[in-house]
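Structure first, sequence second, as always.
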């Protein structure tokens, strides 16, 4: 493998760990910041944006899985679903939570990639 490819994979691994750690310590917006950095570093937006979305999903999935394993989320999710008007459908608030994490990573990566494109076009004079 090329040295640049190994560095990219290492960056993606560190980005995922930072996003998960951030959410675990209460920084719910960490996937956005990680996605922003990812969008700036990865040169192709078609690759960086979906990876940012995946990191956002994993960053919110890991704490939910840990909370479910230690405390169980059934009663909480059922209560929240009832408050939202979805009686006896605890999957709805869980799915919306994971969607939020995914969108945080996606929008951060998109903003980073588009900002990099603007800076590049300004530098080139187009």
């Amino acid at each position: 493998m090329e040295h640049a490819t190994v560095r990219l994979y290492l960056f993606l691994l560190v980005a995922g760990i930072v996003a998960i750690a951030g959410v675990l310590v209460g920084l719910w917006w960490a996937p956005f910041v990680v996605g922003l950095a990812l969008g700036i570093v990865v040169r192709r937006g078609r690759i960086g944006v979906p990876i940012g979305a995946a990191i956002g999903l994993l960053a919110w999935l890991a704490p939910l899985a840990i909370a479910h394993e230690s405390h169980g989320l059934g009663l909480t999710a059922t209560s929240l679903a009832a408050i939202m008007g979805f009686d006896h459908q605890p999957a709805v608030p869980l799915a919306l939570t994971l969607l939020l994490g995914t969108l945080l990573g996606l929008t951060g990566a998109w903003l980073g990639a588009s900002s990099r494109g603007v800076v590049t076009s300004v530098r080139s004079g187009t």
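Margin note: The two ends are 35 Å apart (CA to CA).
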